[in-house]
Amino acid sequence: MNMLFFIVFLLFSALIFRLGIVQIVQGEDYQRKIERTEDVTVNTSVPRGKIFDRDGQIVVDNMPQNAITYTRPKNPDADEMIKTAEKLAQLIEKEIDEVTVRDKKDFWIGKNKEKVKAKVTDQEWNAYENDEITEDEIYKLQLERITEEDLKELTADELEVLAIYREFTSGYALTPQIVKNVNVTDVEYAVVSENLSSLPGVNTTTDWERAYLYDSTLKTVLGNISSSKEGLPKEMVDYYLSRSYSRNDRVGKSYLEYQYEGVLRGQKTKMKNITDRSGNVLDSEIITEGQRGKDLILTIDMDLQTAIDKIIEEELGAAKRSGGHPLLDRTFVTMMDPNTGEILAMAGKKYEVNDGKAEILDFASGNMTTSYAMGSAVKGATVLTGYMAGVNQPGEYIVDEPLKFAGTPNSKSSWFNRGGAMGISDTYALMRSSNVYMFKTAMKIGGASYIPNGGLKLDPDAFGTMRNYFNQFGLGVKTGIDLPNEQDGYEGYVDQPGKLLDFSIGQFDTYTPLQMAQYVSTIANGGYRMEPHIVKEIRQPISDSNKLGPVAEEFQPKVLNTLDLEPGWIERVQEGFRLVAQASEGTASRYFASAPYSMAAKTGTAEGVYDGEWDKSKGSRPMTWNVTLVGYAPSNNPEVAMSVVVPWAYESSANAISINNVIGRRAMDAYFELKKQKAKAKPAEAVIDQDIISNTTE
Question: What is the pTM of this model?
Answer without folding.
Answer: 0.84
